[in-house]
C-alpha cells in the first residue's frame, strides 16, 4: 500500500565504549520520528544511550549464496590466529 | 497459544526421500540448529506458516492491550496506574517487534493489519473475555502472561532468527508482567474478605480460558508435527498446558484461593497435577467469533486504525514536504 511509512533499521549503543548494535526495525515517516519511535520501542528499560536509525532501503547486504566465496577463504588461514603458533612453556608474555 | 492452531498447508509429513534437494539441505540446517535468516532460501510452506504464526502472535499482543487498557483510568492508585500503563505499552512494543519479524518474510505491515481487520487472521481466544473487575487485571498478568511465558520461552530457540530474537526480548519483559499480576492478586488476597472474594471470582473466570490458550490437544496433528520438524513449535500443547498447571496451582495455594476444578489434584505416580476436562466447544465458539467480546475488540481495533489514518497521512506528507525543501536548499 502506498501510504505505508518507510521501514527503518534501529541500532542502539548500550554503554559508552561499546559499538551500536542492531536491535530491530520499525516504521516512521522520517528520521526524526524514527529516533523518537525507537526510543519508545527499543529503550524502555535503559537499554541505550545512543540511537542510530537507517532507512532499510539503504542497507546493502551480502547474499546468502555468496557465503562460500566470501567467507571460506578465511578457513585455511588458521595462521591468523595466535594459537596457531605453539610457544614453549618457559617463554612468558607472548 | 498466542498463536493457536496454526495451519501449515501440509496434509502429511514427507519422508526424507520425498524432499527436493533444496528442502533436504534446508531441513539439515534446521536439524543442526542453524538459524534461518530472512534472505536464506526456505520452502514456501515454511514461510507462509511462519507469517501466519508470527502475525497471530503480533495481533494478540495488540488486541491484548484492549482488555487491560480498559482499566487504566480506573486503577485503584496512581502507582498501579503507572505500572499498568507501562505494561500495556510493553504489549504494544511486543506487537511491534513481532510485526517487524513477520515483515522480514516479505509481507507488508499494512497487509498484516488489513488481514486482522478483515477477520482473515485470528488473535488469541483469551482476549475475547471481558475484564469486569480490578482483580481481572491481576488474573491476566498472573495467568495469561504466565501461560504466554510458558509458550514463549521455548520459542526463543525456534529456527527463524528474527522470530527467536523478538521472543528473547519479549520474554525478558513478560516476567515483569506476570509478577505485577501476582502482586495485585497477593494484595487483594491479603485484604478484606470482599477483596479476596474478588480475586477468587477473577480466578474462577480466567482459569479455564487460560488453559484453552494452549490450544486443543495436538499430539496427532499433522500441522503440529510439521511445525515441530521445522522447529517453530517446540513442545506440544498438552505438554505446555501440564507445565502451566503444575507451576500455577501452588501459586494459587499460596494466595489461599482455588481453581474452579473439582477434579484438580496432585497425582503422585505421574508427578503432575490431574485436572478436569476442558470445554473445547467454548474454545471453538470463541475462535469462530462468538466469544463475549469478539465484536467489541475488532470494532475498537478498526476504529483506532481508521481514526489514526489522518495522523499517519499528515506525518508522511510533512516528511515528504521537508525532504523536497531540504533537497532544494542543498
Structural write-up:
The complex is a heterodimer of chains A (94) and B (330). Chain A is of the alpha+beta class and 94 residues long. In chain A, 18% of the residues lie in helices and 21% in strands. Chain A is built from two helices and three strands; from the N terminus they run E-E-H-E-H. In chain A, strands 2-1-3 form a three-stranded antiparallel sheet, with helices on one face. The termini of chain A are far apart. With 330 residues, chain B is mainly α. Chain B has 13 helices and two strands, in the order H-H-H-H-H-H-H-H-H-H-E-E-H-H-H. Chain B has helices at 21-31, 44-63, 65-69, 78-103, 109-117, 134-155, 161-189, 193-212, 222-229, 237-255, 280-290, 294-307, 309-329; strands at 265-267, 272-274. Chain B has a two-stranded antiparallel ribbon with strand order 1-2. The model of chain B has no long low-confidence stretch (mean pLDDT 94). At the A-B interface, strand 2 and helix 1 of A face helix 4, helix 5, helix 7 and helix 13 of B.
Shape field of chain A: elongated
Q: What's the count of strands of chain A?
A: 3
Which two chains touch over the largest interface? A-B, 19 and 29 residues
The number of helices of chain A is 2
Q: Give, in order, the helices and strands of chain A.
A: EEHEH
Kindly name the structural category of chain A: alpha+beta
**Kindly state the mean pLDDT of chain B as a whole number?**
94
Amino acid at each position: 500500500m502506498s501510504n505505508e511509512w518507510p521501514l527503518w533499521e534501529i541500532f542502539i549503543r548500550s554503554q559508552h565504549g561499546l559499538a551500536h548494535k542492531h536491535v530491530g526495525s520499525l516504521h516512521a515517516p522520517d528520521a526524526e520520528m524514527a529516533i523518537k519511535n525507537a526510543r519508545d520501542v527499543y529503550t524502555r528499560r535503559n537499554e541505550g544511550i545512543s540511537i542510530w536509525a537507517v532507512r532499510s532501503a539503504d542497507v546493502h547486504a551480502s547474499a546468502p549464496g555468496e557465503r562460500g566465496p566470501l567467507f571460506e577463504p578465511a578457513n585455511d588461514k588458521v595462521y591468523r590466529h595466535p594459537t596457531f603458533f605453539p610457544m614453549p612453556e618457559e617463554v612468558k608474555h607472548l | 497459544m498466542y498463536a493457536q492452531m496454526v495451519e501449515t498447508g501440509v496434509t502429511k509429513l514427507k519422508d526424507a526421500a520425498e524432499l527436493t534437494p533444496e528442502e533436504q539441505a534446508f531441513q539439515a540446517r534446521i536439524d543442526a540448529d542453524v538459524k534461518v535468516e530472512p534472505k536464506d532460501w526456505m520452502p514456501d510452506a515454511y514461510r507462509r506458516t511462519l507469517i501466519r504464526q508470527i502475525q497471530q502472535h503480533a495481533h494478540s499482543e495488540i488486541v491484548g492491550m484492549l482488555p487491560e487498557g480498559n482499566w487504566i483510568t480506573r486503577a485503584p492508585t496512581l502507582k498501579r496506574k503507572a505500572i499498568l500503563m507501562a505494561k500495556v505499552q510493553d504489549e504494544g512494543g511486543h506487537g511491534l517487534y513481532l510485526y517487524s519479524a513477520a515483515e522480514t518474510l516479505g509481507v507488508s505491515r499494512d497487509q498484516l493489519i488489513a488481514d486482522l481487520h478483515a477477520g482473515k487472521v485470528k488473535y488469541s481466544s483469551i482476549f475475547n473475555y471481558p475484564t469486569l473487575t480490578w482483580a481481572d487485571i491481576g488474573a491476566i498478568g498472573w495467568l495469561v502472561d504466565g501461560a504466554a511465558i510458558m509458550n514463549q520461552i521455548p520459542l526463543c530457540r525456534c529456527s527463524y532468527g528474527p522470530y527467536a530474537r523478538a521472543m528473547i526480548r519479549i520474554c525478558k519483559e513478560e516476567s515483569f508482567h506476570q509478577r505485577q499480576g501476582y502482586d495485585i492478586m497477593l494484595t487483594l488476597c491479603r485484604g478484606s474478605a470482599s477483596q479476596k472474594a474478588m480475586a477468587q471470582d477473577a480466578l474462577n473466570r480466567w482459569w479455564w480460558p487460560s488453559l484453552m490458550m494452549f490450544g486443543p490437544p495436538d499430539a496427532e496433528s499433522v500441522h503440529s508435527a510439521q511445525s515441530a520438524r521445522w522447529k517453530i513449535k517446540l513442545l506440544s500443547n498438552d505438554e505446555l498446558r501440564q507445565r502451566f498447571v503444575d507451576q500455577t496451582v501452588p501459586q494459587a495455594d499460596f494466595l489461599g484461593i482455588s481453581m474452579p476444578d473439582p477434579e484438580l489434584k496432585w497425582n503422585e505416580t505421574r508427578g503432575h497435577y490431574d485436572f478436569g476436562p476442558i470445554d473445547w466447544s467454548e474454545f471453538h465458539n470463541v475462535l469462530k467469533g462468538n466469544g463475549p467480546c469478539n465484536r467489541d475488540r475488532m470494532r475498537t481495533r478498526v476504529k483506532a486504525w481508521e481514526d489514526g489514518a489522518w495522523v499517519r497521512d499528515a506525518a508522511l506528507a510533512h516528511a515528504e514536504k521537508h525532504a523536497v525543501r531540504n533537497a532544494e536548499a542543498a
